[in-house]
Design brief:
Blueprint (H helix, E strand, L loop, with lengths): L5 E5 L5 H10 L4 E3 L13 H10 L5 E4 L3 H9 L5 E5 L4 H10 L4 H19 L5 E5 L5 H4 L1
Parallel strand pairs: 1-3, 1-4, 2-3, 4-5
Helix pairs in contact: 4-5
Amino acid sequence: MQKNTTIISGFPGVGKTFYAERSNEEGFLVADSDSSQFSKRPDFPACYIAHIKENIGKKDVILVSSHKVVREALAKANLPYILVFPNRALKGEYLKRYAKRGSSDAFLSLLDEKWDEFLDEIENETFPTKVELGPGKYLSDVF
């Protein structure tokens, strides 16, 4: 039986991995498609989009990266998705989340420096359905 698959593009720290692990334990089929397994390939993001397409109909939810190049490729492939991201005012909360999960100093610096730029890009998106998370909220709180 073919599943009705939802694609969710989640900003770092929204709880994609936790959501996938918990959902799969409950029998809900979720693919946590980490783009880092594909991003070093010369055919990225096409290879990543192909991987996503392969899972449509097989999984209930496919969790994907929120990188701009991935979002643009999803739109170009006409793959509807939900973009989950934090409220702009939650920068401090998210930097603490990254540190708590063991993210590298380089990652922390990147998100600290590019926070507003990344959120500006997301807020200007028109293709996806968008879900903005408030304080203390995670993907599992809204799905």
